[in-house]
Write a structure and sequence with these properties.
By secondary structure, the protein is mostly helical. It has a domain of about 180 residues: MFS general substrate transporter like domains (Growth Hormone, Chain: A), CATH 1.20.1250.20. It is built from ten helices and no strands.
Length: about 280
Amino acid sequence: MQLMIILDGTVVTVALPTIQNELGFSQAGLAWVMNAYLIAFAGLLLLAGRFGDLLGSKRIFLAGLSLFTAASLLCGVANGPELLIAGRFLQGLGGALASAVILGMIVGLYPAPAEQARAMGVYGFVSAGGASIGLIAGGVITQTVGWHWAFLINVPIGGVALALAVRLLASDRGIGLGSGADIAGAVLVTTGLSLAVYTIVQSAEPSVTAGKTLAQGAVALGLLVAFVIRQARASQPLLALRIFRRRSISAANGIVILIFAGGFGFQFMTALSAAGARV
């Protein structure tokens, strides 16, 4: 599943110029092919992890894998911008559900420190290798069989992964829905991130005024601040703020954010540059 998620991100990035030409995306609209996925993934990841605790990791993993595979099929048959963006959002939701419980499942499957270290090593290798493979595969797929297969390739892979997961993963019951989840926090962080990304993308449009951009940015920032306040007061927070009291954890998370932001930004800008070069 992790390989499929990483591959999907890099394969799609390479296919963006072709998708723009064939489906008639505007420059700002094209960004939403990536942003719709990232918003759903990042905004719902914390809530998905909580649902894994409540309902059981296997159940949430299978739901996420099934949704991601079905959404990939929807993206692959999309014949217009709206349908593709909707499919990408559903892919992000499925990816969040599955990814949120992967590391916890690895810890549960390999409790011994040595086995756990090897499993984490394989997980890291798959993540890093998938990004590199995806850039090459994206170009080959787009130039040979078409951009649709950048998404459709996930369908057989997802089907095999789903069959193996049902058979091999041990079932767990979870702690039950009665323990609760911070739905309000999830709404705040998802809405705040969505509005922030929308504001950044729309700011490039000539018709959007600076005042409107600043107002939307202020609302987005307010929502994210409200999310932090909510996490500090909630009895069952999505993100326990106390973990950031340790400098090593805060620094590590900051570095990871910068790495992923730089990686996705580089890939997207490269795709746009390639599209400009064609024109």
